[in-house]
Design goal:
8 helices, alpha/beta, 11-stranded mixed β-sheet
Length: 336
Amino acid sequence: MKALVITSIARSPTPALHRYADILPDDFSFILIGDTKSPTHFKLAGCRYWNIKEQQALPYSLAQILPTAHYARKNIGYLLAIQEGAEVIYETDDDNLPYQDFFTARAFNQTDNIFTGKGWCNIYSHFIDNHEMLWARGFPLELIKEQEHLSKQKTEECFTPILQGLADHNPDVDAVYRLTAPLPRHFLSDKQLSLINVWSPFNSQNTIWHPQAYLLLYLPSYCPFRVCDIWRSFIAQRICFENGWGINYFSPTVRQDRNYHNLLDDFRDEYVGYLNNMRMVQHLLELPLKGGAAHIADNLLSCYRLLIQHQWIGAQELGLVERWINDVEKWGGISS
């Protein structure tokens, strides 16, 4: 069994949610997580919807203290998928319209287009056929004019337990881009590359997770909404790289028809990232961690203690992370 996890505050199914239900394979469970603004009942064939009261009644220690009115409610969906024994977890959002190949099985072991080294990669620049500036949300603004060259290529097999798909039409760019540059944009098809020890933000909008990385699914609550999945990605990369694992990026399997956003509100939410993303990654690189699947939980806690120490994330987060780890361990989500 595999699982698709989405969170939504829509009052009725969006076109994207209908499309996921229509093309959902038989071996997938469709988990939809509501919040305080969501309706009590939400009818969509093939989908199991969890309203806020149902979530809070679940036997997860995290469910008792996880803040409401926040995108991190998605953590409950991850735990439900883990409890169901999901072999793979797909996640996306309710405004990402899936292409027909969205549910196509993808390999977690890569043998080509594997790049290793150090520093940052503007991943979007490798999926467009021109030299226009285009960068993902979370990519350091200090680097957007730099054109990096990925020259160090591995030839041996690489395990990539996290696969990040791009989105066409209205891709996941930041508020600075949206306020100053043109949209829509589309990416090259049938392309992928993997990065090891090379940093690139990834989001929660079209992402596939292997069980060995399930602990790294955790989305923080005590930080601005527009950085929560980006900072998750930095923590996940730091721990994956410690294990010799990579992150795989692939051509779009969704088209984003973006829900309404106030761009100045987005800018305000992203501002702390503009100022600190590079510094955060440098501090994560300096943090002593241990390789191996058995150390992922301790490494996760160490990373969050670091972010709390620098006041990037509120101190209340540590208790949530501890409960998340306990819940994942209890429901069998750690794979060695």
